[in-house]
Design goal:
Blueprint: E1 7-11, H1 18-32, E2 36-40, H2 46-56, H3 65-89, E3 93-97, H4 100-110, H5 115-126, E4 133-138, H6 141-150, H7 163-179, E5 183-187, H8 192-206
Parallel strand pairs: 1-3, 1-4, 2-3, 4-5
Helix pairs in contact: 1-8, 2-3, 3-5, 4-5, 4-7
The structure holds thymidine-5'-phosphate.
Length: about 210
């Protein structure tokens, strides 16, 4: 039987340095000659990218938390079925920028919808597929905010909710990590090189 691909996800609050590490791991996979794809959530499919636009558009400030949750799950159902599941089954590894832990932290915890609901919907949307390992880049909200501003990025709908929302998201992520040792908490206040070394150490254990 063909060996399945490895499923790796990256998580953290907005501005935690996730994308930098995501790109570095992707470069590392290239040097190892691994068969892999990179995807992001929400998005990664034609349908998912359209849903992403709705979710991040600041004009949609009347969106309810439940509508928000269901849109994230809709995008997830699409990318799971269309991209992630087939890739893993044919032995291609998948590096994913955010996956269902984002929903647990942002909608379940920070929005207050509760983990019972988000766990149930996460399972439905992913058909039970779970990452093999998840890197949670843990950072305080002020440092993350400063990093986003140095980059001069325009705020999206969730970033516009401010630091107190990001604090809740962070707490939500740490709760998730306590409950599942698949999630590796990485101190994201370290330098990019130090963070990458730590990620590499974990990768060597599973590759
Ligand atoms: P990004 O900026 O990392 O691409 O993520 C888009 C935003 O969507 C970010 O603020 C986190 C948020 N998000 C959720 O609230 N729930 C989710 O399930 C996902 C995947 C992202």
């Amino acid at each position: 039987m063909m060996e399945k691909g490895i499923f790796i996800t990256f998580e953290g609050i907005d501005g935690c340095g996730k994308s930098t590490q995501f790109n570095r791991v992707s470069e590392y996979f290239k040097t190892l000659g691994k068969k892999f794809i990179v995807v992001r959530e929400p998005g990664g499919t034609a349908v998912g990218e359209k849903i992403r636009e709705i979710l991040l558009d600041k004009k949609n400030d009347s969106m309810t938390s439940l509508a928000e949750l269901l849109l994230y799950e809709a995008a997830r159902a699409q990318i799971t079925e269309e991209v992630i599941k087939p890739a893993l089954e044919e032995g291609t590894s998948v590096l994913c920028d955010r996956f269902f832990d984002s929903t647990s932290a942002y909608q379940g915890y920070a929005r207050g919808l509760g983990s019972e609901l988000t766990d149930t919907l996460n399972k439905i949307a992913t058909a039970g597929i779970k990452p093999d390992i998840t890197f949670l880049l843990d950072l305080d909200s002020q440092t993350a905010y400063d990093r986003r501003h140095v980059r001069g990025e325009a705020e999206d709908r969730l970033e516009a909710l401010g630091n107190s929302f990001q604090d809740k998201v962070r707490a939500g992520y740490l709760e998730c990590a306590k409950a599942d040792d698949r999630i590796k908490v990485i101190d994201a206040s370290a330098t990019p090189d130090e963070i990458f070394e730590e990620i590499k150490k974990w990768l060597c254990e599973i590759l």
